[in-house]
Amino acid sequence: NTLIVATLVCAVCSVLVSTAAVGLRGPQARNRALDKQKNILMAAGIFGPEDDANSIPRLFERIEPRVVDLATGAYVTESDVEPATFDQRAASKVPQTSVAVPKKKDIASIRRRSTRSLVYLLKDESGEKVQQVILPVHGYGLWSTLYGFLALDSADLNTVRGITFYQHGETPGLGGEIDNPSWKAGFPGKKAYCDDGAVCIQVLKGSIPPGDPKEIHHVDGLAGATITGRGVSNLLAYWLGEDGFGRFISELKNAR
């Protein structure tokens, strides 16, 4: 009798858990999409403390998603590649739509990347002028891959407007402080590139020294999380470089 009761309890619980998992799959997917949109808006600086989840669809109307060919830097115009349905992570796992990153160039430890990437254009209120370009970035920290967004001012495609991370598994209170608004506040206004075009933005090991000649490119480090900070520096260096969005940024500059 004990075995029968135990078997019935396990069977009932399994059915309930399975039913809940299937039933919640849709809402969970919608919530993940909404959270990603919120982080794009936060990187662009147009989602503030006074906004809530109900504000996201309205604010996101100013965002135009596009797909970019990273090899050429040009927008993808094929009708079968829709920004709304393009899954960059899935594409990075398929040999036909991805490339292996050579070890000597893989400073962000991503191993493979999709040959194409989403980018997000923030338009002004009229919908005519692009004010910011928001780039999806990712790379390895201490314990996990950090997924986030970096916003650049379209005026020079060099001035950082904001950064967010929407998924990671770093240690709370240490590397997890990449979510801390006070730390992220150190990025707006920084310059991503040096005068010679090299990627110069960097998270330091400690605080910015007084009189640092490269202060415009440097961000204070995270206390007790040197490796996570180095991971942020590395992922920015990769995605802003020639193997990431470098050609796309050059194309935008040349199109002016």
Overall description:
Strand 6 and strand 7 (160-167) form a beta hairpin. This protein starts with a helix and ends with a helix. The strands form three sheets. The protein has a five-stranded antiparallel sheet. Strands 2-3 form a two-stranded antiparallel sheet. Strands 8-9 form a two-stranded parallel ribbon. The protein is an alpha+beta fold. The model has no long low-confidence stretch (mean pLDDT 92). It contains six helices and nine strands. It is globular, with a radius of gyration of 21 Å. The chain is 31% helix and 21% strand. It has helices at residues 2-44, 56-60, 88-91, 181-184, 226-240, 246-254, and strands at residues 63-69, 98-100, 112-114, 116-123, 130-140, 145-153, 160-167, 202-203, 218-219.
List key phrases describing it:
256 residues, alpha+beta, five-stranded antiparallel sheet, two-stranded antiparallel ribbon, 6 helices, 9 strands, 31% helix
What is the element layout, followed by pairings?
Layout: H1 2-44, H2 56-60, E1 63-69, H3 88-91, E2 98-100, E3 112-114, E4 116-123, E5 130-140, E6 145-153, E7 160-167, H4 181-184, E8 202-203, E9 218-219, H5 226-240, H6 246-254
Parallel strand pairs: 8-9
Antiparallel strand pairs: 1-4, 2-3, 4-5, 5-6, 6-7
Taken from the alpha-carbon principal axes, the silhouette is globular
Order of helices and strands: HHEHEEEEEEHEEHH
Structure summary, number of beta strands: 9
The N- and C-terminal alpha carbons lie at a distance of 79 Å
Q: Into which percent range does the helicity of residues fall?
A: 25-40%
Unreliable stretches: none
Structural class: alpha+beta
Strand order of the largest sheet: 1-4-5-6-7
Strand content: 15-25%
- Output the radius of gyration: 21 Å
Counted by DSSP, the helix tally is: 6
Biggest pleated sheet: 5 strands, antiparallel
The overall pLDDT average reads 92
